[in-house]
Amino acid sequence: MAYNPQFPHPKAKLFLSHSSFSAKNPRHQAIISTHPFNHEAEVFLPNTSIKDIEKIFDGISGFYYRVDLPLSFFLSQKVINQYVRSGKVAMGLARIGGGIDTDDVVALEGNGNLILSVTKDTYEQLGLPGKAAQFGPDKQRFVVQIDLTAKSMVPGKKGYDRIKWCFENTLNKKFTFFIASVNSSTGVTEEIEFPGEVEPSKIPLKRTLHESRGILIPDLNGIKTISTEDEWKQEALDFYEWLGLASLRARRSVRFIIPIARAQFDRKRMHNTMDWLHTNLPSRTNSRYITVYLYFTSITAASSLILAYHICAYSSQNLNPTHALWASFTVWGFQDSPISWRHQEHGHLVSGENHYTFVTWPDETYVLYQQLGTLDAYS
Amino acid sequence: MSTDQQDRNPRDLNLYAPLPDYVRHQQAHAASLSAVPLDPVTQTFVPGFVTAQVSSDYNARQVYNAKVKDKVLMLDNPAKESADKKERKQNRRGTRRMTAREKREKKVYEVPADCQDYALFIPLHNLWLQYVEELFGRQGNAITHAQKLVKADYHGAIMTVVRSKCHSYIGVTGIMVQETENLFRIVTEQNRIKAVPKAASVFSFKVRNEVYTIYGNHIRYRAAERAAKKFKAKPTIDL
């Protein structure tokens, strides 16, 4: 019985790659740091307990602001000098209404690039030069990029004055920004001074630790020995799905979604829509291991993510070298983000996913899953 | 019937009346006046030559009388007037017109540099405001005013480009000094003349606390033509 659509449907993409942290040209740094807009991250550590992990993750903290700002805020010299030009990386994302496929989205990157992804109506009234977006109907979306760190961004210069005029006259509505300022060297979030009439709400990084027992951890030795055969790919994909299910289980604490391995297939528990999925991964039959899921929700700068990542990647091996299995680290990007990786344009069709997962082993090798939606220029 | 007509004033113009006497007397004189200057050599030579040439099928004398006698025949194409002779003739007339190229070179229709001054055109703006006051009258609402404005003249109105497909035109504000078929020439407060194409632009001006918007795409006619034009509804106001 086929209940999947028969017509050609838009395909999301998943890129699988593998490398090692100690390799000569570390790719993981580039992948993490060129993906600026993230709102959620999760760490999955099998066979550890919360007591062991707690102390380490206490070090990860931060906050961001949710504030209604007019765009002229970013042009004030104070903001440019204090936050954008100096080592403090300010990042923010704002959208009005429906998201990147229907309305205007504004994003400020860590390197001082202000990106406006606007609709045709807004662009025709805006007055700033921009290019037609790659995604969406022809010439219905435009992308305007402003480099705030340029030397010409000084009052008195024609370019700056024009941008200022536009932000004060043609596009003077307030965007609800999620913005954070991060010290690029230490990775610590810092405070932002907003003008008086604006009321920011400071939202701290929300961190949750879950412990789950009785989950059958699949054996990833098959995935660790990398090959280009279809079998390997299938195992890797199966594991990815398992990881997703396990994460859902942890968050929802729903007991009956149990990752099922081939060896144990329990028909009695098939009363949920998820149950038809089973993985063909071999499992460890010893179910005494507990796993820890940590997820934190915040708009996080890439630098602080690297910090978090290193903590999680090495924690498991340091704590239980004999029992260390593997660790995984997943980061979700904003669905409405105008860029995904390396300044490549990103759109939203049925979903705007742009997230990635690192699965690492104690010997510093990893497999990286990068998931992208249909409308993305990076793929 | 003729007697009836003759009873009337004989001086009346009667279509069928015979020609007056003085005309008849002049007929002969007129014939001699309009006679073609004939060379005596031609007079003696031509009849004999033509009748000799006519083929034996035709009556030579008849052909000569019908086709050649008292007629002017063009034996060759007339000489074409040379170009400079033509120009000389034109110049002699006194009304010498400039070509489009000359107009463009001499910038006949452009505002000269020393006149590109906003303050200079403010009186024109005031004049336009008075004109609009007259146009609107005392009564009427925005809709009737708008209908009147469609056929009105905009020279002297303070216009703003509100929307445009090209980003650099957005925000141009000033007094409109020239309207051509496809352009508005606007003098800005920085004393510069900006030529804004009507196509793919939307203009707005404020009159009596009401803001009127003109879609440039729909108004691409010369100002004089627009006054008499019947406007049809366009499918979209999209640029």
From TrEMBL, chain A:
Domain of life per record: Eukaryota
Any single GO CC term annotated in Swiss-Prot or TrEMBL for this entry: multimeric ribonuclease P complex
Record GO terms (molecular function): ribonuclease MRP activity; ribonuclease P activity
InterPro entries with a match to the protein in the record: RNase_P_Rpp40
A Gene Ontology biological process term: endonucleolytic cleavage in ITS1 to separate SSU-rRNA from 5.8S rRNA and LSU-rRNA from tricistronic rRNA transcript (SSU-rRNA, 5.8S rRNA, LSU-rRNA)
Signal peptide positions (record): none
Protein name: Ribonuclease P 40kDa subunit-domain-containing protein
Organism, as annotated: Jimgerdemannia flammicorona
Automatic annotation (TrEMBL), chain B:
Region annotation Disordered: where it falls in the sequence: 76-103
Family annotation (InterPro entries): RNase_P/MRP_Rpp29-subunit, RNase_P/MRP_Rpp29_sf, RNP1, Rof/RNase_P-like, Rpp29/RNP1
Entry GO MF terms: endonuclease activity; hydrolase activity; ribonuclease P RNA binding
Ranges of Basic residues composition bias in the record: 88-98
A single cellular component GO annotation: nucleolus
SMART domains: POP4
Superkingdom: Eukaryota
PANTHER family per UniProt: RIBONUCLEASE P PROTEIN SUBUNIT P29, RIBONUCLEASE P SUBUNIT P29
Protein name per the record: Ribonuclease P protein subunit p29
Originating organism: Jimgerdemannia flammicorona
Upper lineage: Eukaryota, Fungi, Fungi incertae sedis, Mucoromycota, Mucoromycotina
